[in-house]
Q: What sequence folds into this?
């Protein structure tokens, strides 16, 4: 019995050696090749929808309603944004290959600084002729959030909504942050960005962070109105959201 077992082990070892030798000595008789190539074109998409915070139903606009208390007020609606872009930007690879920017554009031409001052973001009086303005602020999250409360009392973590005509405020001491409040500086520094990304990622500028990685290319944008110093009037604006790359 012992001798038979030894013979079987020896035979198995020989078979394995022959298999190994056969594999290592395989000869390629001929080789065929097939070329492969692809061209990836520009692919971008952006969808914005206003939805009620209470039930996520779609509405046509963000509406604060009638303000009876002069304080900060959370809009009853949020904006759901779906965005995707494979843009590389002018100097790839960069963190900010593309950006998602929020703003108002309340004036077709630079307004009178005597009437309006130097900052124009948010809602302005109907007709934009009286110099009355209700500033606005925003917060972005990777999905709907229960952290946002009404009223947004101290605006900690909120970002002021800029206007494309915003000017640098004069007479602010050097070294005060920000040194320049103009639209151009805000855009360059990324202050106006609610998100940024590249071909394979999306970062949402959530409160307290420069960006948090998103997983489904969707985000929720909450809006607050600063009505504490707003005179009696009717206010409105159109909020722009641009997907851009540089």
A:
């Amino acid at each position: 019995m012992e001798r038979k077992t030894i013979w079987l082990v020896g035979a198995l070892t020989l078979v394995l050696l022959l298999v190994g030798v056969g594999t290592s000595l395989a000869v390629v008789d001929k080789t065929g090749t097939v070329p492969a190539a692809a061209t990836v074109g520009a692919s971008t998409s952006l969808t914005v929808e206003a939805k009620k915070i209470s039930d996520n139903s779609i509405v046509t606009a963000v509406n604060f309603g009638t303000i009876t208390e002069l304080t900060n007020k959370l809009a009853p609606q949020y904006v759901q944004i779906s965005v995707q872009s494979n843009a590389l930007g002018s100097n790839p690879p960069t963190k900010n290959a593309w950006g998602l920017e929020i703003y108002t554009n309340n004036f077709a031409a630079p307004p009178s600084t005597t009437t309006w001052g130097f900052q124009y973001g948010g809602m302005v009086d109907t007709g934009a002729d009286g110099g009355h303005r209700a500033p606005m602020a925003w917060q972005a999250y990777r999905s709907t959030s229960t952290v946002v409360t009404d009223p947004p009392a101290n605006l900690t973590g909120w970002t002021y909504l800029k206007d494309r005509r915003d000017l640098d405020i004069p007479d602010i001491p050097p070294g005060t942050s920000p040194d320049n409040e103009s639209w151009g500086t805000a855009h360059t520094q990324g202050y106006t960005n609610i998100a940024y990304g590249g071909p394979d990622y999306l970062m949402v500028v959530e409160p307290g962070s420069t960006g948090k990685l998103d997983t489904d290319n969707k985000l929720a944008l909450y809006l607050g109105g600063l009505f504490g110093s707003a005179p009696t009037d009717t206010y409105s604006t159109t909020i722009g959201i641009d997907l851009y790359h540089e």
